[in-house]
Write a structure and sequence with these properties.
By secondary structure, the chain is an alpha+beta fold. The chain has a single domain, classed as Jelly Rolls, CATH 2.60.120. The protein is about 15% helix and about 35% strand. It contains eight helices and 19 strands. It has helices spanning about 5-15, 30-35, 55-60, 195-200, 230, 255-260, 275, 290-295, and strands spanning about 20-25, 35-40, 50, 65, 70-75, 85-90, 90-95, 100-110, 115-125, 135-140, 145-150, 165-170, 185, 205-210, 215-220, 235-240, 245-250, 265-270, 305-314. The strands form three sheets. Strands 1, 4, 5, 8, 14, 15, 16, 17 and 19 form a nine-stranded antiparallel beta sheet that branches. The chain starts with 6 loop residues before the first helix and ends with a strand. The structure holds 2-acetamido-2-deoxy-beta-D-glucopyranose (4 copies). One 2-acetamido-2-deoxy-beta-D-glucopyranose (NAG) binds near residues 53, 55 and 56.
Amino acid sequence: MSFTKFLPLACFISAVYAATYSLSDNWIGPGFLNTWTHENIADPTNGRVNYVNETTALSLNLTYVTDDTLIMRCDDTTVLSASGPGRNSVRLRSDKTYTTHVAVFDIRHMPQGCATWPAAWETLESDWPNSGEIDILEGANDVSPNQSTLHTSANCTMPATRTQTGTATTNDCYGGDNNNAGCGVQAPTTDSYGPNFNENGGGWYAMERTTDFIQIWFWARNDASVPFDVSSGPAQIDTDTWGEPTAYFPNTDCDLASHFGENNIIFDLTLCGDLAGAVFNSDGCPGDCVTYVNDNPSAFTNAYWDIGFVRVYQ
Ligand SMILES: *[C@@H]1O[C@H](CO)[C@@H](O)[C@H](O)[C@H]1NC(C)=O
Ligand SMILES: *[C@@H]1O[C@H](CO)[C@@H](O)[C@H](O)[C@H]1NC(C)=O
Ligand SMILES: *[C@@H]1O[C@H](CO)[C@@H](O)[C@H](O)[C@H]1NC(C)=O
Ligand SMILES: CC(=O)N[C@H]1CO[C@H](CO)[C@@H](O)[C@@H]1O
C-alpha cells in the first residue's frame, strides 16, 4: 500500500485548516467604557426594563468597573410605578463588528432571579435576522435552558446527529419558524447557567465562527481541563486543542457564509418580555411577571454580570 504517496497532501490539509488565531481585542474593566456602547433603546424583546445610557449607568452604579472587573446590573432599590418605565438596566454592545473570529468570555457571575433573562450574544441589530444571531449564553428565570442558539434567515437547518456534548432542542434555525425558537443546544451540566454557575464562580464560554461551522464551549471555573489558551489569554490560540464543543453548528444544511454577516458582541439583562415573561409561571415563579418586577426591587440583588474579560481572536 503506497501510504506515503498521500502524506504530503495530508500535511498540506492540516496546515490549511490548523485553527490558529491571533489576539485582536482584549477588553478588561475600563476598556469596556471606551469601545463599547450602552444602548439607550427600547428593549426589542418587550422586557420590563429601561436601558440607560453610560452616564446614567455609571452615576447609578449599574455599571461599575475596576482594573479587572466589569459589573452590569439592573436597579435593585426602586419600587416601580405600574404606569411608568421599566426597571433600569444595561445593554452593552461592542462598537466593533466581526465575521469569522473566536470570542472568549470570562464570566464570574451572571444575572439570577425570577424574571431575569440575561444573554451574552452576537448579532447585527440593524439587519436581524439576515446577518444571523449567535446566542452563546442565554436563559430565563434561573432554569433551563442553559442554551446556545442560532437564529437566521430562511433555509438554515442543523443535522440531528452532531459531535457535541450538549443536546439539540430544535434544528431549524430560521427565525420565522417555531416562534423564533432557533436551533438550540442545551449544555450537559447545570453549572453552565444561573445560580449553579454563580455558586461555582462562573467559568469560561468561547465561540468560534468559521464559514464551515460555529462552535461553542463551556468550562466551569473549577474545570481543570480548561485550555491555557482560554484561561490565560496568550497572543496566539489553537482551537483544535480545545476538545469536543458543547454546541456544534456545521454548514451541512446551512450556508453559514450567506446566513451570517458582520456581528456586534452584546451583553444584556432584560426582565420578563418575550421569553422570561412567557414562561414565568411554568418556570416556577409566582404571580404576574411585570407586577413582580415592579414591586420587588430586592429580588434583583443578584441580577448582575461580573465579567473578567472578553477577548477576540482573528
Ligand atoms: C443620558 O440619559 C439621561 C437621562 O435620560 C439624560 O439626561 C442625559 O442627557 C443622557 N446623556 C447622554 C450623554 O446622552
Ligand atoms: C458600586 O457597585 C460595586 C459593585 O457591585 C460595589 O462594589 C460598590 O461598592 C458600589 N459603589 C457604590 C458607591 O455603591
Ligand atoms: C438553501 O441552501 C442551500 C445551501 O445550504 C442551497 O443550495 C439552496 O439553493 C438554498 N435554497 C434556497 C431556496 O435558497
Ligand atoms: C441550571 C439549569 O438550568 N440547568 C439545566 C441545563 O440543561 C440541562 C439539560 O441539558 C438541564 O438538565 C439542567 O437543569
